[in-house]
């Protein structure tokens, strides 16, 4: 965990330098930890620091399998309140026909997914990086990645030393900073949904038994994800509604939420402080550049409607680790290796983005000529075991 002397590393060439030790960057570093490679990971945050505001992450069953392999699942699951299993999902639309119900028992898995605290996950991953002896540079804010023929120069400001600059050189630089802002060369397309997500924790009058709800309403989808004894609420609304929704008294907010759920769910008891953030789709035009690969939210930031974004990012990390491990050392970061990573991610990535974007469009239109066939489609899906199983497998493992 040493902080580099300025320019200390300018001559040494690492195999892989990762910008960002968030959940996705840390997963990549852990997946390479036993590969006898020289891996360094830099993060702008200080050691032991995580986000001030916690976030709720939706993890698929496939993500759990990745964390099990990296031996971080058991410590995570044993942290009080860090993981809540989703045992069933109930999807419905307000003012229309059609309900889809999925259950873990029906799919023969212990849970359909897990609701996880971002802060708890970060802590467990930071501990695992330390245990594995990974070279982590905290307080290192990456400013640029400059590719050369044989390696890339990763320049960062050392925030613990009055902004003195340092450089790491690596055969492969990986951008996992959540925003791709440290690589000027990677452009991202942005589609603004013109929506905001209002998030809060809701307490309940009776136990939730692990059932998650997705409710499509005229004003936008509402997700209730079981978290601890209550629900994490993600309520998609128009930006114009946000000030009044955030400003409502708790009882009025809960009354409005209940009204949107109708008979599908009753029993909200209390609500925490509410926050809101804008919703957009941001996709890197390409996930590779010379001597550079992009993973996680830096590669694609999705609408939270289907809980796919974080899981897609984890699969980026896992696939990149596999591609690196399968390459001879001197081929790490080469055009051929990067092309293999790009090809390996193309289908899953394209399908995950299209699936999420398609859902936003399908359920964002409340015209009767859309609502009625949509309800019939949902009824058909619920009544057709094969189709339901295919849908469930997508939620569990992603698009394969
Ligand atoms: C506002 C918001 C709310 C969200 N809510 C949800 C939700 O409710 N449910 C859900 O499943 N997903 C949610 N997501 C998505 C989820 O947070 C991401 O899928 C997940 O965090 C992606 O992990 P990551 O490691 O790619 O990026 P991040 O988690 O963003 O981690 C990036 C890491 O890089 C570091 N970093 C940043 N810049 C630099 C730099 N220049 N140099 C070095 N280090 C740097 C940061 O300190 C951080 O540790 C939300 C995202 C946002 C933006």
Query: How large, in whole angstroms, is the Cα Rg?
Result: 22 Å
DSSP strand content = 25-35%
Number of strands: 20
Bound molecules: flavin-adenine dinucleotide
Helix residue percentage: 25-40%
Instruction: Tell me the overall shape.
Output: globular
Mean pLDDT: 88
What is the structural class? alpha+beta
Characterize the largest beta sheet: strand count, sense, and whether it forms a barrel.
9 strands, mixed
Q: How many helix segments?
A: 11
Q: Low-confidence runs (pLDDT<50, min 5 residues)?
A: 1-7
Q: How far is the N terminus from the C terminus?
A: 37 Å
Question: How would you explain this protein's 3D organization?
Answer:
Helix 1 packs parallel to helix 5, helix 1 packs parallel to helix 8 (309-325) and helix 8 packs antiparallel against helix 9 (335-364). Strands 5, 6, 12, 13, 14, 15, 16, 17 and 20 form a 9-stranded mixed β-sheet that branches. Strands 1, 2, 8, 9, 10, 11, 18 and 19 form an 8-stranded mixed β-sheet that branches. The protein has 400 residues and is an alpha+beta fold. It has helices at residues 23-31, 61-69, 73-77, 104-107, 118-131, 242-247, 250-261, 309-325, 335-364, 368-383, 385-397, and strands at residues 13-19, 39-43, 56-60, 83-86, 88-93, 99-103, 113-117, 135-138, 140-147, 152-158, 164-175, 188-204, 211-217, 220-227, 230-237, 268-271, 275-284, 288-289, 292-294, 300-301. Bound molecules: flavin-adenine dinucleotide. Flavin-adenine dinucleotide (FAD) is lined by residues 19-25, 42-45, 55-58, 141-142, 176-178, 182, 234, 277, 296-297, 304, 307, 309-310, 313.
